[in-house]
Fold each of these.
Amino acid sequence: MKLERSKEWWMARARREGDAVIGAGLLAFDPVPEERPTATAQTAAVEETRIAFGKFVNLMRRRRGFSMERLAEVADLDASELLVIEDDIHYVPEPRTVFKLAQTFEVSQRRLMQLAGLAAANDAGFRQEAVRFAARSEAVHKLTPEENSALEAFVAVLSEQDPKRVK
Amino acid sequence: MTVNVSKIYLLDVATDGSVEAELRDAIEQAQLDDWQTKWRPALLTTLQELVRKGVPFDQWPQSWHWDWSKKTARVQGLLAFRGFSIVAQGETQGLAQVDLTKAAREANQRGKPLVYLEYLEVAPWNRPDLGNAPRLRGVGTALITAAVALSEDEGFKGRLGLHSLPQADNFYRKIGMTDLGQDAAYQNLRYFEMTSEQARAFFEKEENDET
C-alpha cells in the first residue's frame, strides 16, 4: 500500500492536528512506575512529619557546612534526590536514601524512616515532636542558636530507641 | 516481506517547517530497537520527573496499567503483526498495529469488515501531554491516514475501528469518527468507528481548507 499525496496535503493535516494527544489501544498506555505505590490521599500526618524530615536533613547538612553535593558524596547518595527531599514535601524518599542519611547523621534508622513517611510511628508523641521541630526551625542562613537548640532537642528524639526499651 | 515506503511530511514544531518522513507499512526490528533504546528511556525520564514534581495520581498523562516487562514483551511481539511505522530524522516517530479480522459495530455498517487499530502510539518526544514542547506534529494523523488507506486497499471502504486512550477522545471526535461509547469489555475505553463516508471526508479533505 503506497500513499501518494502532496507535501501541502500532509502539512495541512499535520497543522490541523494542533496539540491533540493521539493514541489507541491498551498497549499505548504508559507503564506503572517500578516503585512503591503512591498514596492516592496523603494523610496530613504523613505530610507533617515529612516536612520535618526535609527540614531535619537541611539543618543537619548546614550544621556541617555541607553543600548538597558534598553531603551526597559523603553519604553516597544522589544530589538531585537530596534537593527534592529538602524542597518537596510530596516526595517519598527511597528507603536506601533514608538508611544512608540515618547512618551519616548518626540517628535511629527506624525513627528516620518514620519521619520520612516510610514506616508507621506507633507513638503520637513522636509526630508531635516532629511538628514542633518543623515549626521552630525556620531556615535562614547558618544555624541560629535557636535553630541549633531546636535541632539538638530533635536529634535527641530521633536517637531514642523503641519507647519500651530502656538504655 | 516487501515493505512499502511512502514519502510523507510532518511539521517541525520548533521551526514551523516541514520534515520529510517515511510511512512504512510494517514494524521491523529497527523500530522495536528504537522503542527499546529511545522511546522507553525518554518516557521513563519524563515519568520520573512528573513523580518528582508531585503530580497527583489522577493527573498523570495516561492511566497506568502496564509495567515495562509486559509492554516490552508485547512491543517485541509486534513483529508478528501487520503494522505501520513512521520514521523521520533517523528515528521511529510513531507506531501502529492493525487487525484485519474485526467487524463493525456501528448501526449502519454492522458486521462489515474494518481495519481495527489495535495499537497506536507516538514517540514520547512528540507527545503534547508530557510537559515538554512536542518535536514533530502530524504523526498520529499520518498513522490513522495509513489505516484508512489500508482499509480502502483491502476493500473495506475506509472503515476503521479503535479504542481511544482517554486523552485522545476529542481528537477522534474532531476527525469525524462515531463515538460508540465506553466499552466495558476493554477497560472502559471509548470505542470509535469511522464509516466509509467519514473516511472519504477524512481522506480527501482539501489542503486549503484552513480555519
Amino acid sequence: MTGPVRIFMVEDHGPDVFLVRKALHDNQVEFHLTRFEDGEQAVNALLKLAEIPHLFILDLNVPKIDGLELLRRIRKNPAMAAVPIAVLTSSRTAQDRLEALALGANRFITKPTDLPSFVRIVGGSIKELLDLPQGPSAQHA
Amino acid sequence: MITTAQEPEAETNLPADSSYKAKILLVDDNPGNLLGLEAVLESPDHELVKANSGIEALRFLLNDDFAAILLDVKMPEMDGFETASLIRARKRSQHTPILFLTAFKSDEQLFRGYDLGAVDFLFKPIVPEVLQSKVAVFVQLSRNAELLKRQADVLQRAEQKFRMFLEAAPESEVFMGPDGRISLVNSRTESLFQLKRDQLIGEPLTRLVPGWTNQSPSPFQGQLSGIRADGSSFPVDITSSSLHTAEGIVTIHAIRDVTDRKRAEEEIRQLNSRLEQKVIERTAALTRSNDELRQFAYVVSHDLKEPLRTVATFSQLLEERLGSDFDAEAKEFLGYILGGVKRMSDLIDDLLAYTSLDAGESRFKPVDLNLVLKEASFNLLATIQETGAVVASDPLPEIMGDRVQLVQVMQNLIGNSIKYRSNEIPRIHVRAEWQSNELVVAVRDNGIGIDPAYSEGVFKLFKRLHTREEYSGNGVGLAICRKIVQRHGGRIWVESNVGQGATFYFTIAAGRASSAAEGI
C-alpha cells in the first residue's frame, strides 16, 4: 500500500474521533480520515464515491441510519464488499457483537475506557485489518 | 259361581285379619222358627240377626249390610214378598241376596219371588245341611265382595298418594305410555310449559321437548330445550327411565328448568374469561415492563458510561500532554478524577447486574456447589493471591439453581470476607448442611466482623458501614446476594460481632425453586 490509507469513520461523538486519530498516529499509521456524523451523511457520500476507502470504522449507535444498517448496505455494494470494517462501539452486548459479525464486520471493538488501552487496542486492530506491520506497542492487541 | 265359591281353596282369599264378620238376617214371625234357624246356622264365621217381622227387618237394614237375608214368605201384616220389594227399593240393599223360606212349592210363588230378586227358595221343612251350605255360599260371596272393596280402597289410597307425590314433585313429571304418547303429567308440567293437562295427554313428548329423539327404553339423561305454549324456549335437564308394566313400557321423564343454573354457569364462564383476559393483559404489561427494563439497562450501559469514558480518556490525555508540568498535587487530583470515574462505572455495572436479576429468565439446573466455590475463587484469584487468603470448604452438595448467579453470591461473600479482613491472614471456610427441606450454606471468616445492630441493614441496596477511605465498595454486592438467594427460594443473614469475624448464611430450597424464581 502506498501513500496514506483512506479511512471512512461514522461517529457522532467528536472526542472518539480525536481518540481514533491519536491511536492511529501513535501507531505510526499514515492515514486520511473522513468523518461522518450520522448514517445518512455516510450513505450519501458512499453513493457518489469516487474513491473506495481502505477501511470503515463504524459506531453502532449513530443518528438516522444506524451502524448495523450501514454495515448491511456496504456489504451489499459489490465494489465495497471486501473493504475491511471495524465496528467501534461502547456496546458490550453479545447480541450486538453477533449481529455485527454476521453482517460482515471484520472486527468488533468495545471502546476501551482508558487512554493507553484505547491507543493500543484500536490502533493495533486497525493495523491488523490493513495488514500493516505491527509496532511494538500493539503486540497484545 | 256357587260351585266355585264352595271350593275349599277359596277360603284362602279371606282377609287374614277377619275383623269382618258376615251378618245373616233371619226374618220370621214365628219365634220357634227363628230359634230353629239359629240352631242350624250357628257358626263363628258369621253373625245371626233375628227379626220378627218385615218392619223389624227393614229397620235392621237401615243401619247394616247383610251377607244374606232369609225371609219367611208367610208373615202377618207385611208378607215376605212385600218385605222383599221394600228391601229391593232401597239402594243399599238392592243387591243383598234374599232366600225365601216357604212351605208351598207353587210356580206362582216362585215366579213372584224371582221377580222380586230372590236368589233362591228353601222349602219347609228345612233340611239343615241344605240351609247351611246355601248360607255358606252367601257368606263366602259377601266376604269376597268385602275383600274386593277393601282392595279397591287400598288401591284408591295408593293412587291418591301417588298423585299427591306426583303433584308435590318439584320438577315436571311426564309419563309416556307404550304408544309413545303422554299419558300423565303433574301440575308443575302445566306451569312450566304453560299448557293444560288435557292439551298434553295423547301428545308426543316432542310437543314439550322438540329435540327429544331417544327411542330406546334405556335410562337417559341430558340437556335439551323445552318449548312453552307461546313458542319461547328454555334449557331443561331431562332424566328418563322406563318401567315394564303389564300394559307395556311406560317411560317417566323428569324435566327440570335449568335457566337459572345456565345463567349462573354463563356468568361464571364470563367472569372466568374476564379474569383470563386480565391475566393476559397483566402478563403483557409485565412482559412490557420487563422489556422496558432490559431496554433501560441497555441505555444505561451504553449512554451513562459513554461520558465517563470520555472523562477518563481525556483526563489521561491531559496528563500525557501536560504531564511534565503537573506537580504532585495535580497528579493527585487526576487520580481522584480517574477513581471517581472507575467507581461510577463499577456502580453502573453492579446496578445493571442487580436490576437484570429481575428481568432475566431463571435457568435452574443441577449445580455442584464445589464447582461454584471453585469458580468464585478463580474469579477472585488476584485478590486471594494479593492478600494470601485461604479459602477452604467441607464437601458441598449438588442443588437446583442458577450456576452463574450462585457463583456471584459466593464471589461477593468471599470477596467481602477478604475486603473486610482484620490484621490476620484472611481465612474463609464454606460448609453446607441439609435442614429439613432446605440447604443451609455458611461462609465463615476471621475478618473485622459486623456490629449486630447492622446485621439486617447490610443487605439493603447502597447500605455501607464504612467510609470509602476505609473500604471501597458501593453497597450493592450484598443486595445482589439477597436478591439471588430469594430467587432460589431462600433467605440470607449474618451472625457476627465486631472483631470476631462473621458468618454469612444463606439457604437454597430443595428441588424446584419456589415461585419467587419465576422471574416476575
Amino acid sequence: MVIIQVVVGGLLLGAIYALFSSGLTLIWGMMNFINFAHGEFVMLGMYVALLTVTWIGGGPAVFGIAAACALFVLGVGIYLSLIRHVMRGPMLAQILSTFGLALLLRYTAFWIFSANFVSLPQTSLGGTLKIAGIFLPVAQLVAGAVAITLTIGLHLLLTRTTVGSKLLAVAEDRAAAMLMGIRPDRMQALAWGLSAGAAGIAGALMATAYPWSPSVGETFGLIAFVVVALGGFGSVLGSLYAGLIIGLIQAASAFWLGAIYKDIVVYGLFVALLWLRPQGLMGKA
Amino acid sequence: MRGRVGWGLLAAGLLLYPMLLTGPFYRDIGVTFLLAAISASAWNIVGGYAGQVSVGHSMFFGLGAYTPLLLYTLWGWPPLAGIPFGMALSVALALGIGMPTFRLTGHYFSMATIAVAELIRIFFGTWDLVGAAIGLQGPAVARSVWDLTFRSELPYYYIFLAVLAVLLLLTSALERRRFGFYLRAIKASERAAKSLGVPVRQTKMQALALSAAFTSVAGSLYVIKTGFIDPDSAFGILISVQMVIVAALGGAGTLFGPLLGALVLIPLQTATNSWFGGGGSGLTYILYGGIIVVIARFDPGGLFDLWHRVLPTLRKLFGSRAHAA
C-alpha cells in the first residue's frame, strides 16, 4: 500500500515537472537556447498565485489563469527586450543573459517576499480522498491532472495547429519560414510567452499542494534540465514521459534513501545521462 | 613598450598597495580583491579564452578548499600540503565533466557544470567525513610556519599576489603560443577550427583542466586564510557567480579583464554591503544579476571592449575641439 502511495505521489508531482519542463524544451527546440531562469519563472508563478489569492480572491481557476497570463507577458517581454538581442551573439552573452536574469529574479523575490516558506490559504481543493487504501490530497490530484492535460495540449498545439506549424517552421529554417510569410520574431516571442506561461501555471498548480520559498526556483530549474535531458531536447512529449519518470524516481529515493538524497539522485541521473545518452530518450542525436 | 610600462605600473601598484593604505579594512579588501582576481583569471582560461562558459566553477574552488582541511583533520597535515591533492581531484573532476559534454554544444557544458556543482554541494552537506552541513576547521594556532596561520593580513596579501602573478604570466605565455591560438579559434567557430585541424576536444579539455587546477588553488588559499569551510561557502552558486561576473565585467578572454573586473567589483561589493547593511546582502546579488544581464545585452566584451569602442569617439570629440581652437 505504501509503495502505491509513493508511486502515485511521485507521478502527480512528475506531471507538474513535465508541464514546466515542456516550456524549457520548447525554447531549446525552437532556438537552440537554454533558459537558466526557467525555474525562476515557476517560482514567480507561485507568488503570482499567492498575490492573486490575497488581493483578489477566487479559486484555483482564477489564480491559475492569472499566473499563466502574468508569466506569458513576462516571457514575451524578456524575449523582446533581452533574448532577441543576444540569441545570435557570442555564447557568453547567450548564457549570461538568462543566468543573470535568474539571479535578478531570485534575489528580487528574496528581497520582496523574504526567505520564509509560504503556502496558499486553504483553497476549495482542500481535503483528502481515500481510494482503495491510499490517501490522495485533492489539490495534488487536480494539479497533476491539469498539468498532464496542459502538457498534452501544448504537444497538440505544436503538432496539430497552424500556429504550431509556424512555430516549427521557424525552428526548422528561419529564412525559409520568412519566405513563407511567417514572421520569425513574432513566433519566437510567442514561444517565449508559451514557455513562461507553462512555467507560471505549473507554479500556480504546485502552489495549491506544496509550500515554497524563493529558493525553489534554483531546484526547479535544475529539475527541468534533467527532465529535458532525459526526454530529449526539443520534444514536448518526451518531457511528459521524462517528467513522470523523474517525479517517480524522486519520490522513490525520498522514500527509501531519505528526503535529502532525492535531489542528489536526480542530479546524478543527469550526469549519467550526459555520459550515456546525451540525446535523451526520445531525442534525435 | 607601452605594454611594459603598464605591467610595471600595475606590479608596482599591487606591491606597494598594503604599504600605502595600511589598516585592516584596506588590507582585507586587498586580500579579497586578489582572491577574486585569481579565481576569475582561472575561470577565464576556459570561460573566456575557450568560450566554454562554466557556471559551476565553485566545484573546483570547493574541492580546493575542502581537501587541505580534510587531510589536516584526518592526519594533521599542514594545509599547504593538501593543495596538490585538491588540484589533482579538481583536474580529475574536470576531465569527468569535459569528456561527455565537450562532444556536444556549449550549452550542455554550462548545464552540466551548474548541475554537478549543486550535486556536490548537497552531497557534502550530508557527508559526515567532511563535517556535513557544519564543514571543516583548520589549525586554530600555527604549529609551525608551514601552517601559514598568521595574525596579520600582510603575508596572505603577498602570497596571493605571487600566485596571481604566476597565473597571469602563464596565461600570457599561453596566449602567444599555439595553444592560445587554438583557444581563440575554437571560441570564434568550433566547426571552422575543426576543419582547419585544431584538436578541438583535446584543447578544450586542456583548458578546462588548467582552469580547474588554478581555481582549486584559489579555494585552497581561501581556506588557508579563513581556517574553515562549509558546503555553501565552498560550492554555493554565488561562488561561481562571482568568478563569472568578475571576468565578464572586465573582459572575458583578455589577460587583464579579470583583474579590472575585480578592481571595479570588489570595492563596489564592499560598499553595497555596508550601505545596505548585513541583512541587505541580497541587494548585492540583485545588483550582480543586473550587471550580468546588462553585460550580456549591451557589452559582452566587458569594460576593456567598451573602452576600445568609446575611445575613437572620444578622440574624434577631442580632435574636433583641437581644430576649433
Amino acid sequence: MSKALVCPCEDVTVDDVEGAIAKGFRDVESIKRYTGFGTGICQGKSCLTTVAQLLARTPGVSPEAVLPFTPRPPLQPTELSVLASLDVDETEAPLGGVPLSAGPAPDALRSKEPIPARADVVIIGGGVMGLALAHNLAKRGCTDVVVLEKGYLCAGASGRNGGGVRMQWGTEANIELAKRSVELMKQFAGEMGINIWLRQGGYLFLAKSAAIAERLERNAQLHNRHGVRTEILAPDAARDLVPELTLKNVLLAAYHPEDGVIFPWPFMWGYAQAAEKRGVRVETFTEVTGLVTSSGLVREVQTDRGTISAKTVVLAAGAWSPKVAELAGVELPNQPHRHEILSTEPLKPFLGPLVSVLDTGLYFSQSMRGEIVGGMGDPREPVALEQGSTLRFLARFGRALTEQLPILGKVKVLRQWAGCYDVTPDNNPILGRTPGLENLLQMSGFVGHGFMMAPAVAERMAEWMVSGQDDELFNRFNLSRFSGGTLEREDMIIG
Amino acid sequence: MRRLVPVPAERAITLDFEGVPVPAQEGEPVAVSLLAAGHSVLARSVKYHRPRGAFCLSAGCSQCLMRVDGTPNLFSCRVPARGGMRLQRQNSYPSAKVDVFSAIDWLFPSGLDHHAMFAGVPVADRVMAKVARHLAGLGLLPDEVAPTRAQPEFLTTEVAIAGGGAAGFAAAEALGAAGVPFVLLEREEALGGRWRLGAPEAGTPATLLLPQGSGTVRLLTTVLGLFTGAQGRFLAAVSSGPEGPRLMLVRSRRFLLALGGHAPLLPFEDNDLPGIFSGRAVSDLVRRRGVLVGDAPAVVGHGPELPALVTLLEEAGARPALVLDTSSSPAKGAMAGKLLKAHGRTWVQALSVELVRGRKKVACDAVVLSVPPAPAYEVARHAGARVVFHPELGVFVVEADAEGRTRAEGVFVAGNALGGTTAARAAESGRRAAAALIREVRP
C-alpha cells in the first residue's frame, strides 16, 4: 500500500510526522519521540533532513527553532563485545560526557504567548511528577494550574529512564505506592487514550554476595506480607526464566512476575494532554529564574518569559530541585548523580523479565520494540548535574552485560544517553510542606524510581492538596525528617 | 542491475542465500553480490513488512539489514563476501519474498498509530500488546558467543582527522607537508571519498595516496564519536581487520572532522521500494564494483552531482529514462519537476513525476536520487559545536568560521559538514582548516 516514508528504519511516514506537527509538537526532539523517527538502526542519518524540512515549512516555525535532535554515540552500531574490550580504571571517577553543551536553547523554541500573571498552583518541573500532579489536581477541580518545564516534555529523567516498574521494595511505604502505581498504569490507556505498553515480564534480582542475598530474602518476606508474591529462586530456577543467563557466583534470585516495563514517554503526553483539556497550562522551554518570598510564603515565580504570582508552588524538578529551591533560600539534601543507559538493535523477543544484579547495579530488560535497554551505576560517579555519555560506561556495561548474558556479545549498541538520579540521604522522596515556607510543596528526591511511583504519589498529593485532609505520607517523607530523628532507609535501589 | 566487469575466475565464490547459491566476487559487499545476481528483496521492514533492498550502500540507512553467518542486523552493504557465507533475510514469514505479515501494510493504508491503537479497549489492548511484542524486533539472537576481542589500540597525535574524503585528504596533505603529526581515520579501504567513488568531478588529484612519512593513516576504521575522559578528549573508532573488529582511541587536543554526509531519503510515495538508490551508491557501484543499477534508470535530484552522475551512467552504457531536476534552477539537459510516486512490487518499475505539463509516469528499471548529502554533524555536536538549520540548503550544518573553526575549542570541520558542495570546494575547506591548525600547532 502506498506510503511516503520518512524513516524506513521504524516505518515512520510523512503523514506521521505531519500529524505530530499538527498535534503541536514543534521541536525535533519531541517529533522524534512521538513518531519514533530516528530511533532505529540508522539513528537519523537518512531521515532527519526530511523531518527538518517538514518542520521548517510549518507556519510559525522559524529556522532557528529547527534544531537536530541530540546525536547519541556511537555513530555506527557497535558490538558490545568490542566495547567490553576496553579496560576501565575503576579507581578513577568518570569525567565529562558528550554531547557537550552547545549553549542555551534559542528563544525561537519558546512560545510567543504571554505567560499567565497568576495561578492557584504553579508546578515547577514538567516531568512525570509535575504532569501527573497537574492532571490529578485538574481532575479534582483545581484547574488554575501552570506547569513550567525548562525543556521539552521528556527532556529530564522522566524521558531518560529504562521504564522499569516494580513492586519489590524494601519499605512498606514504597511497596504500597508501587502497587497502586501499577494499578493506575493498567488504567492509563483507557483514561488517557494513549498506550504505555505495560509488559509484566517480572523483575529478576540476582544476588552475588551474602549481604544482598539476605536482603532479598528479608524483603521477599516483607513483600509477601503486603500481597506482593515475590519468590526466592535458586540459580537453576532463575535460569529457567532466562536460559541464556550465566549464573556463576549467583547465590539466589528474587522474582516477582507482576513487575515489568513500560514505555515512559506516553505518560508525559497523556498526563499533559488530559490536564490541558481541563484548562491546565503546560509551558515548555520556560525556565524558572527566581522565587520571590515574603512572610513565610512564596509569592511569585519568575521565569524567562515573565512572572507568575501563585498561591501554591510545587517543586517537582527532580535532580534540579535543589538548584530551584536555592532560589527561595531553601536547602534540600538531594544530590544529582548521573546514571548512564543504552539501547541496542531490536531483537525478536527472548528476554521476559528485567534482570538486575543488585551487587553491581547492572540492569537490563527487553523493550516492547525488542531493544535491550540497560544501565549500570558507577560507584565513582561524582555529584553533578551531568547528562553526558561516556565511553567508560559503554565499556563497563558491555563487560558486565556480556558476562551475565554472553550471547549478547555480537549484539550492537545503537545509542547511549544519561539522566540524573535525584538522590536523598535515606533513598526516600521529599514530599509535603517546606518548613518556613508553608505554600512551597516538595515533590522530589525519588532516587531513580520516581517514574514508577508518580501515578500513585501524584494521586495522593492532589487529594491531600485539594481535600486539606491529613495524609501520613506527607509527614513521613517531610523535609523536616532530616533535622532529627531516625531515617527509614530504602535498600532496594539499583545502581 | 548487471555487472559491467565479469568476476575474475580467481575471485569467484559462491554465497548461500537461504539455501540458494549466489555467485559473488570475493571481498565485495554481499548486498552487491545479491543485487548483481538479481535478488531484489534483502529485508522486510520492521512495522509494515514492506520489501526493502539496498539504498545508500554506506551503512547510513537500514534497508539492507540481513543475518549473516548467524549474526543479526548486519548492513549487508558493508559485509565483505567470503565463500560459503550464509545470508538470511529477517522479519518475515514464511519467507521475505512472500511475507504474510506484509498484509499489515495493506490493512493499515494510512498507517498504524501505535499511540492510540486499541488504547484502553478492554481485552483488545492486552491482546494487542502480546501481538505487538511478537511482531516487534528484527533479528533473532546471534548463533554464537563473540570471540575474545583484540585489546584496544591507543594513539596520541597533534591533530586527529576523522574522514579521508576530499576535505580530510587535502587537510592531511597540507599537515603532512608542514610536518605536523596527524592520525587520519578512514572508513573505506582507500582515501579519496567521492574523488574515488562519486560521480567524477573536474580537479580530481592524479594520486589519492599521501606522501610517505606524513602522519598515520588508518583505513577500514569507523569513527564512533568524540568523547571526553580523564586524559582529555579522544576519538573512539573501530577498525576492522582479519582478527575482527578492534577498538581504537585517538587522543588529541585538536580535531578536524570531515566525515562527509549521509544520503537522505527524499519524501515521495513508496520511496522505500527496492531499486531506489542514492546517487552516491550508484556511482560507487559503477566505479568500485563494476555494477550498473539499470539500463534505463530515472535520475532525480539537484546539485552539482546530478549532471556528473548522468554522464557517468551514460558512459557505463545506461540510457536514463528520465533526468529530473527538483530545484528551481534545473541543470542543463534535465527536466524540471517533482517526485510523486514509485511503482512496482518488489523492484521499481516506473516513477510518477509532476512536470510543468502535468503528471507523467515514466517506466524505468531503477531510480537514482542524487542530492547533496545531509552533513554528518554528529561528531562535531558531540564535541560541543553548534549545529543549525540552513533554510536554503534544507539541511543541518555545523556552525564554523571561514577556517572551519567551531565554537568547541580545538574542533574544526571541513567539507560536507559545512553544507553540500563540490569535491574541489570540500578540499579547499580542508586546506584552510589545515592552515589554521598548522598555525595553532606551530605558532
